[in-house]
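## Example record

The block below lists the input lines for one assembly entry, exactly as stored, with component labels intact.
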Amino acid sequence: MAHYKILGKDPYWMNFYGLMLLTLIEVAAVGLDLSDFAASYDTTEKVVTLWILTIIAIPKFIMIAAIFMHLYGDADSKILTLTALFPAFFIIIMVLFIGLTHPDATTGLPDWCRPGTYGL
Amino acid sequence: MSDHDDHHAPQPWGPHDWHHGAPHNSFSPLFLSMGVAISLFGLAAAWDYGTYNPGHIPTILLGLLVVGFSMFIWWRQDISFDGHYDPISTGTPFRGIQVRKVATWVFLMSEMMVFTSLFSTYMRYRLGIENCGTVFERGMFDPVTNPTGWQEGVAVTCFEPASHLIASSWWHLAPGAVNTFALILSSFTVVQALRYAKMPDLDEEARRKKVYRYLASTWCLAVLFLTLKMVEWFVGFYVPEISFIGLHEHDIVSLVDEGYTINADHYQHHSYIDEATGAHMVANIQVSASLFYVTTGTHGAHVAGGIIGLTYMTFKAWKGLYTPANAVSIEYFGLYWHFVDLIWVLVFPFFYLY
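Predicted structure tokens for the full assembly:
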């Protein structure tokens, strides 16, 4: 259980309020017309929305893990945080090498690195 | 409790006397895994290369029966658990931490890998296949002026995110948005249940009521989540006329009724109509729809699994069997439930909003 306060208040209630607020901003970011704002940065509204959603998802993720899942403030928080971060290496590999490769990679790659060819 | 009595023979079918240590001779986990194996074998045999073979349905049912039986036995053994036996890790690096807590975290990290594979697949196809909206904006095919345009009646393979339908209006977005708030609220109620279960100076009846009510609230929110998911996927809903706020009577059609299905090879969104000619662009959206249903469905299956656990825990709380000594069970379940919330934090913006 949490043995600390956030701004002098109960951490679970504060976390709950914070998550609700961030979710409201998320929904508003999709519903509101951001085209003028996007144009001022020479980009599209969809790109601005994606940035807002990504930036908000990060603190939400951390708030749930740190406060609700007790990865902050408990005696065993440090080692459990390291345990939680252990698969990060594999996740980065998956996201970078699978998520960001092109679906045509197997046919679009040069001959020497396609399956069955091996440069021979 | 460390005074393990080697001469004591705990009942393998429970209820169990926990003062003599954990029932290491429980048959339940073994039978449970056998039941899962039997039902999965039946499922695999029932659909052989797309051919449906109903003769294997009894095998599936037998497997589910064994699973149910094992869970019943497990429940009988655990219902007597008073929390005095919680093995503590003795080796580095988890020395002094409850073994079950570490195991829960390791389990959650394996779950994280499952969802990462789904997210990376989503990223791959979202970035790699041209968006249907972009294809439509290129305009209709013309051999001279627009050779890369789309043709009426010829399905274009492109990526059509579900958000194109879901985020098209506040009403379409409502089930997903309500679900987001419901999951955050349920994360809060489960942590409140843990708080009151662990509170040492609380009257027994007051503890029973608090823990039971917070767990029951979590159960209700989880059921609401799955109900709204079904509404969004299959049912749709009716919006009544409320004239003083300018709301007109209309129906919100479900995703399936909109044609957004995993086998949609001639999908047509309302906006994919050429204004000049009235021609419709049709699209093969099987990849994008499959990704949406598999990812959100896998998350939904985790919520359904949580409901099973919550049903048992709510019953246990109603019986007043949670005390500060055994409240860790709520903590371990809470870790799983917060993880389900954590995944939704990523699923909602990237599958529903973007």
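Residues 88-353 of chain B form a domain with the Four Helix Bundle (Hemerythrin (Met), subunit A) fold (CATH 1.20.120.80). Chain B has two domains: 11-80, 88-353.
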